[in-house]
């Protein structure tokens, strides 16, 4: 396993179109996070999953955003009716927590991100 | 709400210099603290993780300290090299990571 994988790496779309990003976490990791990063800022939390359950959503995640992790493995982040303000880098991370008998540091490992440009 | 501040926002040093990056956070009830490196247009690379019960962690030329009671962490980089040029991000963990805005480091040859 080579780490967290995100696709596509770059997406250019017109305002009003829908886009979907995919994240494949490190295989044994039970937590998966989505973050958004704009130029010159640190990443901002959007949502996270423990296995297939979505446990927390940020207020940044408007109704146009939806995330799924149907089988507790890969996740998708869909943005409907994109706006220019959605232009950002969308980062996915995974971690291993709460597993009995295993040293869990909660360390997050990030993918390379998916850059969205909305024209 | 947790807030993370990193000072300075940008730093330029000559090669070989030792340097310190600062991070402060407002809520000391953290699970751990991570330092990341980010190259332009790339994702984040984890450098060091300090658990809330620990005081410091070291990896090669990097040393990170944590003072939970005062809400501070420092990242010390020894003998800096041009390849260290990047943005360094500090993040603290409660249920999820809260990031600072980063320090953009430039090491001049």
What's the gyration radius of chain A in Å?
14 Å
Stretches of chain B where pLDDT is under 50 for at least 5 consecutive residues are none
How does the overall form of chain A come out from the CA principal axes? globular
Major β-sheet profile of chain A = 7 strands, mixed
- Shape descriptor of chain B: globular
**SS element count, helices of chain B:** 0
- Please identify the oligomeric state: heterodimer
**Number of distinct beta strands of chain A:** 11
On the 0 to 100 scale, the average pLDDT of chain A is 91
Q: What structural class do the secondary elements of chain B suggest?
A: mainly beta
Return the average pLDDT of chain B rounded to an integer: 94
Terminal CA distance of chain B reads: 41 Å
User: Helix and strand succession of chain B?
Assistant: EEEEEEEEEEE
Q: What amount of the residues of chain B lies in strands?
A: over 45%
> Structural class, from helix and strand content of chain A?
mainly beta
Radius of gyration of chain B equals 13 Å
Amino- and carboxy-terminal Cα gap of chain A: 35 Å
Question: Which residue ranges of chain A are poorly predicted, with pLDDT under 50 across at least 5 consecutive positions?
Answer: none
**What is the chain-wise order of helices and strands of chain A?**
EEEEEEEEEEE
Largest interface: A-B, 25 and 24 residues
- Report the total helices of chain A: 0
């Amino acid at each position: 396993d080579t780490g967290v994988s995100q696709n596509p790496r770059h997406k250019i779309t017109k305002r009003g179109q829908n886009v979907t990003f995919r994240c494949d976490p490190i295989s044994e990791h039970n937590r998966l996070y989505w973050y958004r990063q704009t130029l010159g800022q640190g990443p901002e939390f959007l949502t996270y999953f423990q296995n297939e359950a979505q446990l927390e959503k940020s207020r940044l995640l408007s109704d146009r955003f939806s995330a799924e992790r149907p089988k507790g493995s890969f996740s998708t982040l869909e943005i409907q009716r994109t706006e220019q303000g959605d232009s950002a880098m969308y980062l996915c991370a995974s971690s291993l927590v709460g597993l009995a008998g295993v040293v869990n540091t909660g360390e997050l490992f990030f993918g390379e991100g998916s850059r969205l440009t909305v024209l | 709400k947790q807030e993370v501040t990193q000072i300075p926002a940008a730093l330029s040093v000559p090669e070989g210099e030792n340097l310190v990056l600062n991070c402060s956070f407002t809520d000391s009830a953290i699970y751990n603290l991570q330092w990341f490196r980010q190259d332009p247009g790339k994702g984040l690379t984890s450098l060091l993780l300090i658990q809330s019960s620990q005081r410091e962690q070291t990896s090669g030329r990097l040393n990170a300290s944590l003072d939970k009671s005062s809400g501070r962490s420092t990242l010390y980089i020894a003998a800096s090299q041009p390849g260290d040029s990047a943005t360094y991000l500090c993040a603290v963990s409660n249920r999820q990571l809260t990031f600072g805005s980063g320090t953009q480091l430039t090491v001049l040859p």
